[in-house]
Amino acid sequence: MVNLTLFSQIMQLISRNIFNKAVDKYQTDKHNKGINSWTHLVTMIFCHLSKAQSIREITNAMRSINGNLN
């Protein structure tokens, strides 16, 4: 049995293909300098769901989940 977090279950509801088509259509990653649109979306959804008040809270929480996420 695979243990999926609530956050990963929510993220599975978002179609990556549709998202990538929108990124290509609007060229949101054209001048990307380190963080792509998908990573930004995931971070913003995580921030909203965790009711984070600062960037430090977000980075600490993301590090605790993924281990080495900058």
Describe the protein's architecture and organization.
With 70 residues, the protein is mostly helical. The chain has one domain. 61% of the residues lie in helices and 0% in strands. The protein contains 4 helices and no strands. The termini are far apart.
Return the domain count.
Answer: 1
Q: Average pLDDT value?
A: 87
Query: What's the end-to-end separation, in Å?
Result: 30 Å
Structural class: mainly alpha
Report the principal-axis shape: globular
What's the Cα radius of gyration?
A: 14 Å
Per DSSP E runs of 2 or more residues, the count of β-strands stands at 0
Total number of helices: 4
* Proportion of residues in extended strands: under 5%
Helix and strand succession?
HHHH
**In this structure, how is the largest beta sheet organized?**
none
- The low-confidence runs, each spanning 5 or more residues with pLDDT under 50, are none
